[in-house]
Backbone:
């Protein structure tokens, strides 16, 4: 059953500074409904630009992008963004709004009744495992980095989007928090039936969380596929990216033999 | 002497509701107007570097114009505008007092508000702006829900600065006819009433501090997101406005407004005229401390009803004559010219307040100087002081031309200080006023102008166009005409320049009336 992909990039291009910097070069990529796709690449690879083209934070120069079957250039960008969840690097929370105010912002923009927003905020605090009574009225600066990112995830999910875009969401966190948050999000993704595109520079994180991984380099899409597909790739850059997690896995396997089965 | 025993304190307090109320009213209006203009401008300019630079540059230039000059400039500007609207649109407005003061002060308040708003808005973290866009805010929602709330503390700091500037500068709006706490200061400086000067400065400072602290409370509340503090500050400001506005609204408006320029004699004469009107059961108030460039236009446009001017001043300044005529001829000509503008030259008070070159009597006798001509070549070794306008007036050019005088040095001085300066020998000659009481006090002598280089300066009563046929007003003023001689005026001026309880313009005016009323 070849369902239409939820997000479809077809020959998309974007350049900056009057064409001197090509950020995204003829990229075609489909994201199926319910899929968790990680886009991996170094800085300047064009991965963040690719993500932002989907909710029109950046406008494409060439090609066509479809979200839920609709050409995004024909959708009001404001309305488009309100129906797509977006998780920013290190939270991007509004410093003058409480946790509840931050989480409820998109529903508020959509004109939900206050009581409904309030109930939704509590529901989301439960989902991201933050204690309602304790965190609801706190300001972002009173939270730890991990808590802030949990609020960021809750905010992205507030208006019940089908699609969530994540821009290096766990990059700035300590490894333990990062691991816990990644697992928790993975569970949410599955339980809520979300379609997620996550940007990361960390191949290990991509392999552990995503169903499928796309590799960007110099604005081009070098490879895409399951971890197994990428393992088999003959591309030199992909091979280099895959070497780190593989070596880590081998070393850890040797050092911690009893954990191997987990 | 305890403050409570000195009637000047109670007199100062009796003016407080009026002066403070007007001061708050003009300051608040100016600040509100300034904000209304500056905030949208800053918001529009924040992402436009060229406009931003131009705006901040312009606001900085305005800031460098001295407050007094800025205020004074708005008067003729508005007067011209009022004439235009009257000619083209069929309506006119008063260019006097409130309006020019509000406009000039609003302009004055713009720099700190513009600068802080732009700084505050451009200081918002780009990541937060991106988030605002990402969650689906329109540019306007991003501005109102994110950017302005985040910039608010910095903006409030600018508004505080503007408020203090406006409250301070509003004291300078007295000369353009806006009653303010500056009335204490201008009147006090002119009549050497230091109680008034101190009272005015103190009241303005306290008002500025109170408003600043209330705004600080709001700022603090916004910074710490404490609604209680923000509300308390807002409530304080509202209460202050209400408290100062209520008495001045409740006060009945006087029918007649008596104008006065910025020197002692004018304060005394306007008080005398107001007392005469009140004695005739005509309600009257004085508008003292008006700039000499403002007062004539204010009369012509009916903002004031009556004031005392001097024939030579009008002749040279208002009608730009450079020739000098004999006394009666000049008065006759003035009367005709004024009548063309529907202004009534009601009559002379009886004395002249002319410019005269003045020296200590002792020194003049020693040197054998009795007339201006006697100064002759000695002038080259002497210094001369005059008031701020004297050296640019035609009288000075006339004296130089008629007598060929060149002095070693020229200095400009506050008129009240130059008599002491010449008495102490700090300067050799001053351009004084013949009716000034200090001439007698310091035993000075006015040198004879035998070549008639200085025009006559008869004190004359002028009535505004709408009072041309006001017989009640004329009847009340008639007893003053021709009754005040130079000796009496000098003594009145000397009394008024004293630094004690009996030296208020009102008290001196009563004394003067008793003196001339008996005859």
Residues:
């Amino acid at each position: 059953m070849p369902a239409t992909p939820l997000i479809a990039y077809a020959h998309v291009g974007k350049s900056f500074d009057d064409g001197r910097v090509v950020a995204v070069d003829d990229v075609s990529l489909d994201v199926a409904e319910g899929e968790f796709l990680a886009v991996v690449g170094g800085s300047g690879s064009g991965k963040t630009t690719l993500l932002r083209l989907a909710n029109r934070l950046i406008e494409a120069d060439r090609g066509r992008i479809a979200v839920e079957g609709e050409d995004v250039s024909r959708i009001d960008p404001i309305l488009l963004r309100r129906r797509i969840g977006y998780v920013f690097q290190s939270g991007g929370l509004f410093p003058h709004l409480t946790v509840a105010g931050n989480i409820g912002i998109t529903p508020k923009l959509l004109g939900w009744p206050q009581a409904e927003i309030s109930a939704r905020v509590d529901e989301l605090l439960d989902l991201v495992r933050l204690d309602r009574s304790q965190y609801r009225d706190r300001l972002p600066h009173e939270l730890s980095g991990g808590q802030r990112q949990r609020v960021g995830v809750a905010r992205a999910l507030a208006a019940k989007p089908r699609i969530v875009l994540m821009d290096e969401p766990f990059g700035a966190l300590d490894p333990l928090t990062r691991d816990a948050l990644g697992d928790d999000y993975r569970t949410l993704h599955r339980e809520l039936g979300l379609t997620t595109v996550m940007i990361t520079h960390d191949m290990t994180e991509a392999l552990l969380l995503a169903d499928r991984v796309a590799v960007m380099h110099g604005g081009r899409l070098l490879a895409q596929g399951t971890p197994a597909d990428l393992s088999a790739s003959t591309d030199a850059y992909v091979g280099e990216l895959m070497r780190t997690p593989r070596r880590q896995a081998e070393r850890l396997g040797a050092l911690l033999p009893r954990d191997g089965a987990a | 002497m305890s403050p409570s025993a000195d009637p000047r304190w109670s007199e100062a307090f009796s003016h407080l509701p009026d002066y403070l109320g007007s001061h708050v009213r003009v300051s608040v209006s100016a600040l509100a107007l300034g904000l209304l203009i500056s905030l949208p401008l800053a918001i529009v300019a924040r992402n436009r570097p060229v406009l931003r630079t131009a705006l901040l540059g312009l606001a900085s230039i305005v800031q460098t114009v001295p407050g007094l000059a800025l205020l004074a400039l708005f008067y003729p500007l508005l007067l011209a505008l009022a004439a235009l609207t009257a000619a083209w649109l069929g309506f006119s407005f008063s260019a006097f007092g409130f309006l020019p003061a509000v406009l000039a002060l609003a302009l004055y308040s713009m720099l700190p508000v513009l600068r802080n708003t732009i700084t505050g808005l451009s200081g918002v973290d780009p990541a937060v702006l991106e988030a605002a866009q990402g969650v689906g805010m329109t540019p306007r929602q991003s501005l109102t829900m994110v950017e302005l709330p985040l910039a608010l503390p910095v903006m409030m700091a600018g508004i505080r600065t503007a408020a203090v500037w406006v409250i301070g500068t509003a004291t300078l709006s007295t000369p353009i006819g806006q009653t303010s706490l500056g009335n204490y200061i201008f009147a006090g400086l002119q009549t050497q009433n230091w109680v008034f000067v101190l009272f005015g400065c103190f009241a303005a400072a306290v008002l500025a501090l109170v408003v600043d602290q209330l705004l600080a409370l709001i700022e603090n509340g916004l910074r710490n997101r404490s609604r209680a503090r923000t509300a308390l500050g807002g409530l304080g400001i509202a209460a202050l406005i209400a408290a100062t506005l209520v008495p001045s609204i409740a006060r009945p408006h006087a029918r007649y407004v008596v104008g006065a320029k910025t020197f002692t004699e004018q304060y005394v004469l306007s008080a005398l005229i107001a007392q005469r009107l009140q004695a005739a059961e005509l309600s009257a108030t004085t508008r003292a401390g008006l700039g000499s460039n403002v007062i004539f236009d204010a009369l012509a446009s009916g903002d004031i009803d009556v004031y005392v001017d001097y024939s030579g001043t009008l002749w040279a300044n208002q009608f730009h004559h450079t020739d000098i005529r004999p006394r009666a001829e000049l008065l006759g000509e003035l009367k005709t010219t004024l009548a063309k503008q529907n202004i009534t030259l009601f009559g002379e008070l009886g004395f002249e307040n002319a410019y005269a070159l003045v020296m200590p009597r002792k020194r003049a006798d020693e040197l054998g100087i009795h007339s201006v001509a006697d100064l002759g070549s000695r002038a080259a070794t002497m210094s001369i002081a005059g008031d701020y306008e004297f050296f640019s007036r035609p009288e000075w050019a006339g004296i130089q031309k008629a007598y060929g005088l060149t002095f070693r040095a020229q200095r400009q001085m506050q008129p009240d200080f130059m008599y002491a300066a010449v008495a102490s020998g700090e300067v050799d000659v001053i351009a004084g006023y013949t009716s000034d009481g200090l001439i007698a006090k310091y035993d000075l002598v006015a040198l004879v102008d035998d070549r008639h280089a200085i025009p006559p300066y008869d004190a004359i009563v002028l009535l505004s166009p709408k009072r041309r046929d006001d017989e009640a007003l004329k009847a009340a003023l008639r007893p003053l005409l021709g009754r005040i001689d130079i000796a009496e005026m000098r003594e009145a001026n000397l009394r008024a320049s004293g630094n004690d309880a009996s030296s208020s313009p009102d008290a001196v005016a009563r004394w003067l009336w008793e003196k001339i009323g008996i005859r």
About this structure: Residues 91-161 of chain A form one domain.
